[in-house]
Design goal:
The chain is α/β, with parallel strands linked by helices and 313 residues long. It has two domains: 7-209, Spore Coat Polysaccharide Biosynthesis Protein SpsA, Chain A, CATH 3.90.550.10; 215-304, no CATH class. The protein has 13 helices and ten strands. Strands 1, 2, 3, 4, 5, 6, 7, 8, 9 and 10 form a ten-stranded mixed sheet that branches. Helix 2 links the parallel strand 2 (35-42) and strand 3. The radius of gyration is 19 Å and the shape is globular.
């Protein structure tokens, strides 16, 4: 390995003993080998740290801190990184062997970008994969994304385990917001997309293990509400951004309703430009809570069979 790696792979780690070995193996197995791995142990209380410690070597180092949250851990790893390009990876996701080579090729071909995104797939259950869908972006398209917010209306162009960002960009956008427990990645992607070009590849190289990420079960609704109000000014003159944020408002409004916060949910729903909603969304929001709960349970069951049923679009 060169004295200065091309990529620094930053992995925040908190209680992921079931997944971390597979995650690290997917990095070690990359065809492009000029990288370092920085695992930031965020105060894990399970066997995660012990498992990673057995793998420490020339490419892997561990930074340990008391539990301060995933944003603090990511920021710490980024600041300690030796490379000029930061490849993010969550401790329960995996890369295909071509991931870093794909990102390297994108950087060389499209050098003027603030964020590089590979295609990714969702893993809902064992042997059940579904590729992310980007609006208006053909599967064979590679290059600068014409409009990040318009293209992210189905699934987000950027995902934490599928992005590479030049290190200096983090300093420009003030890193991940450590005050947010949820939505901090989306907040960062929006900031970057408003100021810089975003590149997307045409190869699926990352797998997002979406086991327990249902919005209805999250206790971090407050942070998501903060997120949807952060870009009100920018939305005025950016209609694709407004539509993108309205999609997030709708998801949060549903979450509030499911968590017995009907007044708050209605308030957020009323703030949505209804021209950005389809008939299905309007009908779903008006359903009684017990029917919504049944729909979410049905969605989870279908996910496990690799069939995606969307409640938010």
């Amino acid at each position: 390995m060169n004295s200065k790696p091309f990529f620094s792979v930053v992995i925040p780690l908190y209680n992921k003993e079931e997944f971390i070995e597979d995650t690290l193996e997917s990095v070690f197995n990359q065809t492009f080998q000029n990288f370092e791995i920085i695992v930031v142990n965020d105060g894990s209380t399970d066997n995660s740290l012990s498992l990673v410690s057995k793998l420490v070597g020339p490419k892997l180092r561990i930074i340990s801190t008391e539990n301060k949250g995933v944003s603090f851990a990511r920021n710490l790893g980024i600041k300690k990184a030796n490379a000029d390009y930061i490849a993010l990876l969550d401790a329960d996701d995996q890369w295909y062997p071509n991931h870093l080579q794909t990102m390297f090729d994108l950087i060389k071909e499209f050098p003027e970008a603030g964020m590089y995104c590979s295609r990714y797939a969702f893993s809902f259950a064992k042997n059940s994969l579904k590729k992310a869908m980007f609006k208006g972006i053909p599967e064979d398209f590679k290059g600068y994304v014409p409009n990040y917010f318009e293209s992210s209306f189905f699934d987000s162009i950027a995902h934490t385990s599928a992005v590479t960002i030049p290190k200096h960009i983090f300093f420009k956008v003030n890193f991940f917001d450590i005050t947010m427990r949820s939505g901090q990645d989306t907040y960062l992607w929006i900031q970057i997309a408003l100021k810089y070009n975003v590149v997307v590849g045409n190869v699926t190289t990352s797998v997002f293990n979406k086991y327990a990420n249902n919005l209805s079960k999250s206790g971090h609704t407050k942070d998501r509400i903060v997120l949807i109000d952060k870009f009100k000014k920018e939305e005025i003159d950016n209609k694709p951004l407004q539509r993108y944020m309205d999609k997030n408002r709708y998801a949060i409004a549903l979450s509030c309703k499911l968590n017995n916060k009907k007044t708050l949910g209605r308030s957020i729903y009323n703030d949505i430009d209804k021209r950005h909603m389809n008939l299905k969304q309007k009908i779903i929001f008006k359903l009684p809570c017990f029917i919504l709960i049944m729909l979410f349970k049905s969605k989870k069951a279908l996910d496990n069979f690799g069939l995606r049923f969307h409640l938010y679009r």
